[in-house]
Write a structure and sequence with these properties.
The chain is an alpha+beta fold. The protein is built from 14 helices and ten strands. A hairpin with a 2-residue loop joins strand 7 (112-128) and strand 8 (131-144). Helix 6 (215-232) runs antiparallel to helix 8 (244-263) and helix 9 runs antiparallel to helix 10 (315-334). It is globular and about 80 Å long.
Length: 437
């Protein structure tokens, strides 16, 4: 099992990394690595979330199969099999049965090269807190036919000890280096480059919560799910900012995480230290989202009515300029060390021990009942409420919705029906608030 933490580092700052005090007295090892990633012509391995590569290390070739798993924060854990082979072509005969079982039903004779990576890897072996980790700086490129993109990233791989040490080391580096969140593996980026995969905004998934599970463990799963959605939307927001859904899903993920921070209070879990900084990030993203809603929803809906109003013909152009400036500010925030720090802090908190306690279903019933009563209380005489007070009902509905989404697996079809109806109410209140704003 490979456990590693991966972050992006602009190539311009590589020299600063090499001079970092954490690496003082540690002799680096350098290797040039050429890897060829293979798949069938219709990308059957990719569809099974499998990465299969042949890597030349010096004069030798190593064959690797990885069962990809989505990164949670910057940390990824995935099964991996690595075996020396005689040449630069796939040799499935040497793979162990458990690895071959992942390839069942695939015509292995059709597996061939689809893209390649070429980079220099510089590694340092670090010891901290009784654990050992390898820090690797990879600099080079990913190539697919005539297309290519630069590669510059850090990987901190756990060799022995607990995963917390990876976050500790990353935190020390982040204090002096502008590290950025990069959840994608080299294989994922390669498949996008060769157009086998099309990036898309990542919506909220259902946390893996089961009846009988300790409530604290269930709470950690809610946080983990929100963090996975948050980091999964970072590359798309930075590389395809014209798709406004990426920013929307980023903010949904932050709301889910802040909602989870609030849920912990009912379990005696103090509000996590990352909740405050996460709120600051949300406030920094709000202007970009407000302009997106204005340009893509509010303004088109009233354009005809405003046609004769003395607002000036340049209103849409001025709004687009304001939206662009807000988006650039939001991108700067997402690439800042403060955002990376929050992601690392949330990831580290997930590795803290969770004690046994009340079962998840009892905790869920308490949470949902409390939030349901609050929403109903605020919503009395709804038609008579002024917009700011009605907005409080909307916020209560939103908090109930996020809690219900997180706990959906405990309730089955009944829960899904409730969430659909709650979503209709939330959307209706949201449209009214957007119109008022």
């Amino acid at each position: 099992m490979e456990i590693e933490l991966k972050l992006a580092l602009d190539a311009r700052h590589a020299a600063r990394l090499r001079r970092h005090s954490l690496l003082t007295g540690v002799k680096p090892q350098r290797r040039k690595l050429h890897s060829v990633y293979c798949d069938t012509p219709d990308f059957e391995l990719m569809r099974r979330a499998i990465a299969f590569r042949l890597r030349r290390v010096g004069y030798h070739w190593v064959q690797t199969l990885k069962a990809e798993a989505p990164a949670v924060g910057a940390l990824s854990c995935r099964p991996e099999w690595e075996i020396p082979v005689a040449g630069s072509t796939p040799d499935f005969a040497v793979m162990p049965p458990e690895a071959l079982s992942l390839l069942a039903g695939i015509d292995l004779a059709r597996v061939g090269p689809v893209f390649a990576t070429e980079f220099q890897r510089t590694t340092w072996l670090l010891s901290a807190g009784g654990a050992v980790a390898e820090l690797a700086l990879d600099q080079g490129s990913i190539r697919a036919g005539e297309a290519s993109q630069p590669l510059s990233e850090l990987e901190i791989e756990l060799k022995s000890g607990t995963p917390e040490v990876l976050f500790d080391l990353a935190g020390q580096l982040l204090a002096d280096l502008p590290l950025q969140v990069e959840p994608r593996s080299k294989a994922e980026r390669g498949y996008v480059l060769c157009e086998a995969a099309v990036p898309a905004p990542v919506r909220a998934g259902s946390p893996d919560i089961r009846r009988g599970q300790p409530a604290r463990s269930a709470w950690a799963e809610v946080v983990r799910s929100g963090l996975a959605q948050l980091v999964a939307n970072v590359p798309g927001f930075l590389e395809h900012p014209e798709d406004i859904e990426y920013l929307h899903q980023l903010r949904i993920a932050i709301r889910r995480l802040r909602g989870a921070a609030g849920l912990g209070g009912s379990l005696g879990i103090g509000r996590p230290h990352w909740s405050g900084p996460l709120g600051e990030i949300m406030r920094g993203l709000n202007p970009a989202r407000d302009w997106d809603v204005f340009l893509h929803e509010t303004l088109p809906a009233v354009q005809d009515v405003l046609a004769g109003a003395p607002l000036g013909e340049d209103l849409p152009a001025r709004a687009r300029h304001a939206a662009q400036q807000a988006r650039l500010a939001a991108q700067a925030l997402i690439t800042s060390p403060s955002f990376t720090r929050v992601v690392l802090d949330i990831g580290r908190s997930l590795h803290a021990g969770t004690a046994d306690g009340i079962p998840a279903e009892a905790w869920a019933a308490h949470i949902l009942d409390k939030r349901w009563k609050r929403m109903r209380g605020l919503g009395r005489n709804l038609s008579e409420l002024d917009p700011p007070t009605r907005h409080r009902v909307r916020i209560a509905a939103k908090k109930l919705r996020y809690a219900a989404d997180a706990l959906e697996n405990l309730y089955g079809k009944r829960g899904r029906r409730f969430i659909r109806r709650l979503a209709e109410l939330q959307n209706c209140l949201g449209r009214a608030n957007d119109a008022y704003v």
